[in-house]
Design goal:
The complex is a heterodimer of chains A (385) and B (342).
Chain A: H1 3-22, E1 31-38, H2 45-65, E2 71-78, H3 83-97, E3 101-104, H4 108-121, E4 125-127, E5 143-145, H5 150-163, E6 169-175, H6 178-194, E7 197-204, H7 212-219, E8 226-230, H8 233-245, E9 257-260, H9 268-272, E10 280-283, H10 292-305, H11 311-328, H12 334-342, E11 347-348, E12 353-354, E13 369-373, E14 379-381
Parallel strand pairs in A: 1-2, 1-3, 3-4, 4-5, 6-7, 6-8, 8-9, 9-10
Antiparallel strand pairs in A: 10-13, 11-12, 13-14
Helix pairs in contact in A: 2-11, 3-4, 5-6, 7-8
Chain B: H1 3-20, H2 22-39, H3 43-68, H4 76-92, H5 98-120, H6 125-145, H7 147-150, H8 178-201, H9 203-213, H10 215-220, H11 225-251, H12 262-274, H13 280-295, H14 303-317, H15 321-341
Helix pairs in contact in B: 2-8, 3-8, 3-11, 3-12, 3-13, 4-5, 4-6, 4-11, 5-11, 8-11, 9-11, 12-13
Chain lengths: 385, 342
Amino acid sequence: MTRFRIFAYSGVLICGIVALAATPSSAADHIIKIGALLPISGPGSYFGAQDKQGIELALDQANKAGVGGYTFEVQYEDSSCAPLPATQAAKRLIDEYKPDVLIGEECSDATLAVMPIIEQAKIPLINAGSSSIKVTDPGNPWTFRIMPNEVMQGVDIATNAYKRLNARTAVLLHENTNAGIGNANVFADTFTKLGGKVLTDIGFGRDVNDFTAIATRIAGMGDVDVIPTYTLEGQGLKITQALMQAGVVKGGGGKAIQLGTIWLPFGFEQKAGNAAIGYIRIVQFDPTDQRPLVRDFIQAFKAKFNADPTHLNAHAYDQIMLIADVVKRGGKDPQSIRDKLAETKDVAGTTGSVEFDKSNQNVKMDTVHYMETKPDLSWVSLKWN
Amino acid sequence: MSETSHGADRRRLSGHSIVRSRHFRYLLAAAVIGLLPLVFTTSYWRTNLILCAINVMLAIGLDFVLGYAGQLNLGQSAFYGIGAYASTLLVTKLGIPFWAAFALGTVMAGAAGALLSLFAVRLRGHYLAIASLGFAVITYQILLNWISLTQGPLGIYAIPPPPPIALPWLPRIPFTNLANFFYLTASLALIVYFLLDQMLRSPIGETLAAIREDEISAASLGINAPKWKAFAFAASSAVAGAAGCFYAPFVGTLVPDAFFVTESFAILAMVIVGGMGTLIGPAFGAIFITLLPEVLRSIGDLRLILYGASVTLVVLFMPGGIMQAWRLVRQRLFFFAEESAT
């Protein structure tokens, strides 16, 4: 076969697959269309994979009997945790899928880039993964965040470090992103005001793969009580293991405690091994929570996916269930869904409860759960909130 | 050969020469640019069109230094970023009008290219690639870490589009309208294409080709290779900088990650997939590389696999890129036409 023919046949095959996949499904009435902007490719793709599981479970449950005569449908778009792909994905969803409501993105840079587009399109966006304060301050009337922002998390974790762990010295490690810098700054401000001392603040790009030099530098700083760390899972694992090898953290025979926020998924401990011993971090979801809502969610998740749910599964599930609650309260199009979202008060979710303030930020601190990794790599919920 | 077939040949040749005429091609390109936003009416597709126009500039700019002067420059992302940041900071921090900032951003990127060329002209092949890659890494780190100037990873948000322009006998043209923004970027891409094309058809093109083929022989003909390579670097960088000036107001957000070194490889892919050493090839390569992942969005998770497979297929079976494929198709069509005529 000539090169020309191979090339031509390959082209025809690819076009065929695209054409088949692009064939629109038949539309139905009384459907709430949800557009999901998720990082399905790139370093944040673990967010997207786990979010999808939570969304699919929530759809199964919400669509079983419907809500007020409505069922729910989700269209996913890969927004890749970055501004340009996120804006392209958002425009595609808005123009071609015409959603009633959007959920996502996980990364703050991407969410911030998408916000002007959804404001112009007047479609509400529910966010559960971006911690940058700028998402809701100043924010816009169409963006709602159900997770605690960087200030809520940073103030809380710094206060707990100082008061509960008696930490007096800290080294800050963070990726050089909006969320990384924002979280680190809030921790530093609060910790310093309380009387603690930040020995150094180390930022790095997402392209850094070897943290040996940074860990060695920290090892040479003497007594370090806590190391708040703000990175995605891939770099988080490498940092934790480098800190163990340098003998800085408990897993490596040191005394420093690594602190983290909601960026790391469950299962991090198993991947990090002994390096994770003593790691204390905020999670959005506490699987030991005894509320029936949480027990039912865990049971249903295990039945569907044969695995324990993570906080990412839980917050994605909560996003869909919040939309279902809004529809139950009369939301049926973008404007009414936005208005009902703004009125949300004490709606229970698996991660905690939801009540928005005037900037559309969830003010409930019961979404902040602390967990500590034990020597056998299990973890315990610290019940600090 | 009979009189009739001579006549048919003449008619075919005269039709062929019109199609091959440069004026006809520019008119055709202008007509296509004019029609595209009328065909693609959603903001999503118009966004993709704008991105295509920006990427065409990046690709033909790189092709000028790589395909014609033979210099493997992997620092194009840096010049793209310098143009984007320089123009945005001039507008947001100093209040300079957009069009002046555009001119200055372009000049600054060109000057950065000239600066790199001071070292780069002494290097060839892999060494030049590594040096230019190093320049891209340094520039990225400066954009990321000079937070007091660039905002670094905190990013610059809510960057306004270029201000409306008023042309004689026409209403004001606002660039908040994506169709107008496309006309602006695509017109600029066409002008850049025209200028590079003119240069390459002048003795400059022959000079660059001589340097590309054999620098020592070129020197024996009296060609000052370092000077012309520096010129090619500066011109190529200025084009990338001009593209960058439109990136920021287009996306509305500026973060250093947009100019990470991988962007250089994406631009290189556009040139190779299109067909290095032809201006039109990289222009089509840019359109192909920009649109393919978007067209494939409808197939969901398999999108990136198919995207990678498609690009690999092109490189594997058509090393000369889209232009080689086109020449092959044209040959076949010509062959079939000849066959049916006889």
